[in-house]
Amino acid sequence: MMDCKKALSETGGDIIKAIEFLRTKGLASAEKKASRTTAEGRIGSYIHDSRIGILIEVNCETDFVSRGEIFKELVDDLAMQVAACPQVQVVATPYIKNDKVLVKDWIKQTIATIGENMKVKRFVRYNLEGRIGSYIHDSRIGVLIEVNCETDFVGRDLAMQVVACPQVQFVSTEDVPKSIVEKEKELEMQREDLQSKPENIREKIVDGRISKRLGELALLEQPFIKDDKLLVKDLVKQTVASLGENIKVRRFVRFTLGEDTD
């Protein structure tokens, strides 16, 4: 109420100018809020025709705001914006729902409306000829995955698998960089329980442990979340046999809300 009275006083009682005054004040306030810490937020995704996929993290200050409809709509719109504008700086483009406003200005208006700082932390865009799947868990963990096939459910199931297996970093053991393999071998060779073993026995034990470790890092080596008697690679083989088409998992990315990306 006091803000309204002040606005009318500042504009000589002109209601239209008073509204503009309040709006300007709100955006100025949004600029001040832009330096505040954003530790909460949402992970969102957008899939267009299973060919273009976006995974995005947008941060705000509190869990309460992150679960509100205004913030949720902003995250969904920004994911769609990235899909529509792949080759430009997203915040400098016209907002997809109102081309008279730039995305960065729409974010400022939303900050002014909600009363919290917010920012786009990161996003990834996939575009291919196969299928892109995604899975978001409680808006806090999200996965985007590329699968070379024409069947939608495969991508979603595999994205869900990656969410359930936070240790997974690669599609297959063959994708694990040689530097990681060598580091694991170095660590294993130095373990105390192996020092008294003969060299040939120690090598076999180390090879077995490394094989197990690499399996923990690879998506295809995980027990399938819907049937733990089946490895993901066996699920893929069964699906290939039943559908009659080749299926290859190309890559995936996982976002966890608030994780360090440096």
From TrEMBL:
Organism: Linum tenue
Localization per record: Mitochondrion
Purpose of the protein: Associates with the EF-Tu.GDP complex and induces the exchange of GDP to GTP. It remains bound to the aminoacyl-tRNA.EF-Tu.GTP complex up to the GTP hydrolysis stage on the ribosome.
GO molecular function terms attached to this record: translation elongation factor activity
GO BP: any one term: mitochondrial translational elongation
Keyword Endoplasmic reticulum: no
Annotated InterPro entries: EF-Ts_dimer_sf (IPR036402), Transl_elong_EFTs/EF1B (IPR001816), Transl_elong_EFTs/EF1B_dimer (IPR014039), Transl_elong_Ts_CS (IPR018101), UBA-like_sf (IPR009060)
A Pfam family the protein falls into: EF_TS
GO cellular component: mitochondrion
SUPFAM superfamilies to which the protein is assigned, alphabetical: Elongation factor Ts (EF-Ts), dimerisation domain, UBA-like
Similarity-based family: Belongs to the EF-Ts family.
Protein name: Elongation factor Ts, mitochondrial
Domain Translation elongation factor EFTs/EF1B dimerisation intervals: 53-259
Domain of life: Eukaryota
Record's keyword terms, sorted: Elongation factor, Mitochondrion, Protein biosynthesis
